[in-house]
Design brief:
The chain is α+β, with helices and mostly antiparallel strands and 187 residues long. It has six helices and ten strands, in the order ββββααββββαβαβαα. It has one domain: 3-Layer(aba) Sandwich (VC0467-like). The longest helix has 8 residues. The protein starts with 9 loop residues before the first strand and ends in a 16-residue tail after the last helix.
Length: 187
């Protein structure tokens, strides 16, 4: 596969017929995709939790009231005890996976401490856990019509209300999910 066939910085939009409870009606932002597999963060599954609870567990001091209220999302079924901050701009943090020139995913404590002081990145989405695929697994799922994929849109990623992201991501590709039945791909 050439690098142009990889889906880094794209949305994976669950087809209506995808029954897996981890991904039902989900939008996943692909942070990395190469011959070894893929890593993404589900961006439309809020947890019943806010950042203040995580900062308290991590014993972060000096937490501003606004930072306590930031929602936390379930990023996927893998390593749900680990936190990830999807953010723009890139910044200079201890452990950042650079996705684009503007967007990164950081898993180090320094970014959370900065967010707690209202000194974090301009736009962010905080998750616990991630979605992972082994070598060739995502390609097989794409061939089975489990997912739609297309270029990620930062407005959908950071600004669209979470409950609208699934349909908005599909609409950005010109797809109306209401018109797709669960029988897609079964002639």
């Amino acid at each position: 596969m050439s690098s142009s066939q990889y889906l880094t910085n794209q949305f994976l939009i669950a087809m209506p017929g995808l029954e897996d409870p981890n991904f039902y009606h989900s939008v996943t932002y692909l942070c990395e995709h190469n011959e070894d597999g893929a890593l993404g963060l589900v961006i439309n599954r809020p947890l019943d939790m806010q950042l203040g609870e995580i900062l308290q567990q991590l014993q972060v001091e000096h937490v501003e009231p606004e930072a306590r209220q930031i929602p936390v999302y379930l990023g996927g079924p893998v390593q749900q005890e680990r936190g990830f901050v999807l953010h723009e701009p890139l910044g200079d943090w201890d452990a950042t996976l650079r996705v684009t020139d503007r967007i990164g995913v950081t898993s180090s404590l320094d970014i959370l401490a900065a967010i707690a002081r209202n000194e974090g990145p301009e736009r962010m989405l905080i998750t616990l856990g991630y979605a992972g695929w082994g070598a060739g697994q995502l390609e097989r799922e794409m061939a089975e019509n489990a997912w739609l994929s297309g270029p990620a849109n930062p407005e959908i990623l950071f600004d669209t209300p979470y409950e609208e992201r699934w349909k908005a991501a599909a609409a950005s590709l010109g797809v109306d999910l209401d018109l797709l039945s669960g029988e897609a791909g079964h002639a």
